[in-house]
Amino acid sequence: MVKKQTVWLLTMLSLLIVLSVYYMTSPDSGEMAFIQDAELEQTTGNMNGDGTTDDTVVSQMSSDELFASIRLEMQNKRDKLEEQWSAVMASSTATIEEKAKATENLDNLQDRRTKENILEKTISASVPYEDVLVRAEDNGVHVTVRANELSKSQTREIMQMVYDEFGEVPVDVKFQPSK
């Protein structure tokens, strides 16, 4: 168990170092920006659960950059949580209950990441969308596909895939038009 945790911790630290070096050495062109959920909703078309479509606002960012920045922000946020929970687990002052809760949170986060990856691949395999972004959060699952349009049947199919993977949770399906 200790060996497994050590390998996991070293892997995460290596990933953090690689991402830090990449971030620091990448050219600062001003094009990358972290997008909050409210801004994402403004830059994407929204297909509601009932199949109606909200107005689509074209983003100043390319779809590739938008998806990449959202993934990076999500990764950074989760890495910080993992770091905190790992610190609690390694702490000599933490109680058994705190360590158990940290372990449970860490397991849930890893499970959420795995399910997101599986769902992204499953959705991409069913209909060849240019890109698929799945974000599982406490308030539900948000799915954004890069496509010029999304039919009601495609939306229902995506929602069913989410239910199959995550259970009965609120699902938000959106599309981001390609430029």
TrEMBL record:
Q: Keyword annotations for this protein? A: Coiled coil, Membrane, Transmembrane, Transmembrane helix
List all membrane-crossing ranges.
7-25
Gene3D superfamilies in the record:
Stage III sporulation protein AH-like
Q: Which residues form a coiled coil?
A: 92-119
Does the record carry Membrane as a key word?
yes
Q: What is this protein called?
A: SpoIIIAH-like family protein
| Biological source species | Halobacillus naozhouensis
